[in-house]
């Protein structure tokens, strides 16, 4: 096996845990806690299973669609490729993306085999077992993938590789299980200890001292008799009685003195840190960082989910270039549902958007999954302060000009000249003097100008 780990032609493969593991010659190596840590044993830890399933289930159930940017605006890309919502024809979208994320979180890499026809149209996408894939570079420096049970290497055009965390100069991602095997091994050791304690441990653990010599049969009978009364959790807390001068001396430390509960809690917190999951989502009480659920979800989305979603989008979006007009197209997961606030917060945000002029009535109704109003005013944005249609945004300015013209005319300025100076349109005058100069009751309706004739 070791002879195949190195290539001629300047191509070499590092001798690593992943290489030996992936080749099928797995070595069972114990860590400092005396446990064996690999993907199978790590996934048996409750906290690790919960963290991985929480992340994978949350992201895989998000809505996903294809888009394209035209003139700086994002619009839907249609017709939408079938693989966007059904990547693997033999399974569901949720199962496909869930397998991709599980592979990233445990192995540090996700490999998706791309099957296409001669025209380049994608027929199917299949998630591979990362242990069956080996990465190398050919003589031209291009990345090639050797897949188990495939006779020829797979090029990067027919393989999607999504690494989780990559060391400088490396191609393959770092496995969290391998990098944190001591922390995960401690969690496994604590779980095994608890299982043995409740399944086979005696509550009063120690040794029985007898003053005289015992034959092998007598010692066996004494041991079996004591274990028969005290071994196992169903027989715990029974009163022990010894005769013949025998004495019992405890040799173990109680769980409260050994801080067993705190150790198991710390193991869960270590797992939460490893996967960037808020501890309260793994069932640890009293670990909320923020007072509101909205802020907790926002922190989780920003620091845990968004980086993984971004990696998925960047990896799958290049496939859109295989379709006519899709050179600038991309796929996008919708995270809005995770950031959805309570109704009071949403109404306050919508009110701000309406008053600030960047949301319309129908925009708000669509965000709330309500039917749009069939009225042009519902699709018209409103300007700040006056909260009027944009088409009537000059109404306030014109109103102030009319007030100024009224005051100038009242003090004797020529109306036509005032209208021209203020930029207001000319308006036909009735010819009657202003009522501000002469009360209407004193004007002769038959000869209205008689009151102003200078004799």
Structural commentary:
The chain is α+β, with helices and mostly antiparallel strands and 455 residues long. It has two domains: 1-205 and 252-340, no CATH class; 395-445, no CATH class. It contains 14 helices and eleven strands. A three-stranded antiparallel sheet has the order 2-1-11. The longest helix has 24 residues, at 293-316. The model is unreliable at 1-27 (pLDDT under 50).
Q: Brief description of this entry?
A:
This protein is α+β, with helices and mostly antiparallel strands. It has 14 helices and eleven strands. It folds into two domains: 1-205 and 252-340, no CATH class; 395-445, no CATH class.
Write the layout of secondary structure elements.
Blueprint: H1 17-22, H2 39-42, H3 46-60, E1 64-70, E2 73-76, H4 82-85, H5 93-107, E3 109-116, E4 122-128, E5 133-137, E6 143-147, E7 154-155, E8 159-163, H6 176-179, H7 181-200, E9 206-209, H8 216-230, E10 247-250, H9 260-274, H10 293-316, E11 329-333, H11 343-356, H12 361-367, H13 395-410, H14 415-421
Antiparallel strand pairs: 1-2, 1-11, 3-4, 3-8, 5-6, 6-7, 9-10
Helix pairs in contact: 3-5, 7-9
Q: Count of helices? A: 14
Tell me the strand percentage band: 5-15%
Weakly predicted, low-confidence segments:
1-27
Structural class: alpha+beta
Number of DSSP-assigned strands: 11
Helix-residue proportion: 25-40%
- Average pLDDT, all residues: 78
Rg over C-alpha atoms, rounded to the nearest angstrom: 39 Å
Indicate how many domains the architecture comprises: 2
Features:
14 helices; 12% strand; 3-stranded antiparallel β-sheet; 2 domains; 455 residues; alpha+beta
């Amino acid at each position: 096996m070791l002879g195949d780990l190195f290539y001629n032609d300047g191509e070499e493969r590092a001798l690593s845990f992943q290489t030996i593991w992936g080749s099928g010659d797995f070595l069972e190596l114990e860590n400092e806690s005396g446990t064996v840590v690999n993907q199978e044993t790590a996934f048996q830890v409750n906290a690790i299973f919960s963290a991985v399933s929480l992340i994978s289930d949350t992201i895989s159930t998000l809505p996903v669609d294809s888009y394209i940017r035209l003139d700086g605006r994002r619009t839907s890309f249609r017709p939408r490729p079938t693989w966007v919502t059904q990547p693997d024809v033999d399974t569901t979208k949720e199962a496909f993306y869930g397998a991709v994320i599980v592979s990233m979180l445990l192995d540090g890499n996700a490999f998706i085999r791309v099957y296409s026809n001669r025209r380049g149209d994608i027929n199917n996408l299949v998630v591979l077992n990362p242990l069956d894939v080996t990465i190398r570079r050919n003589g031209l420096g291009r990345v090639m993938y050797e897949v188990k049970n495939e006779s020829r290497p797979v090029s990067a055009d027919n393989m999607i590789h999504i690494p989780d965390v990559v060391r400088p100069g490396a191609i393959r991602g770092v496995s969290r299980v391998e990098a944190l095997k001591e922390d995960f091994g401690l969690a496994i050791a604590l779980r095994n200890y608890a299982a043995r304690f409740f399944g086979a441990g005696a509550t009063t653990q120690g040794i029985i001292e007898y003053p005289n010599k015992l034959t092998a049969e007598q010692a066996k009978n004494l041991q079996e008799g004591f274990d028969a009364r005290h071994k196992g959790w169903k027989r715990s807390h029974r009163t022990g009685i010894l005769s013949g001068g025998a004495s019992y001396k405890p040799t173990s430390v109680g769980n409260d003195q050994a801080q067993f509960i705190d150790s198991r809690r710390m193991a869960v917190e270590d797992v939460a840190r490893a996967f960037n999951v808020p501890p309260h989502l793994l069932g640890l009480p009293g670990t909320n960082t923020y007072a509101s659920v909205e802020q907790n979800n926002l922190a989780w989305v920003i620091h845990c989910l968004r980086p993984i979603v971004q990696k998925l989008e960047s990896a799958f979006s290049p496939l859109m270039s295989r379709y006519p007009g899709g050179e600038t197209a991309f796929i996008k997961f919708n995270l809005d549902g995770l950031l959805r606030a309570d109704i009071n917060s949403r109404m306050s945000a919508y009110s701000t958007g309406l008053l600030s002029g960047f949301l319309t009535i129908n925009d708000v109704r669509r965000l709330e999954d309500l039917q749009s109003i069939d009225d042009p005013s519902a699709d018209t944005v409103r300007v700040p302060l006056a909260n009027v249609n944009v088409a009537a945004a000059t109404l306030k300015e014109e109103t102030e000009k009319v007030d100024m013209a009224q005051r100038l005319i009242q003090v004797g300025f020529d109306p036509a000249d005032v209208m021209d100076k203020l930029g207001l349109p000319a308006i036909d005058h009735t010819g009657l003097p202003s009522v501000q100069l002469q009360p209407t009751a004193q004007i002769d309706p038959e000869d209205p100008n008689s009151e102003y004739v200078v004799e």
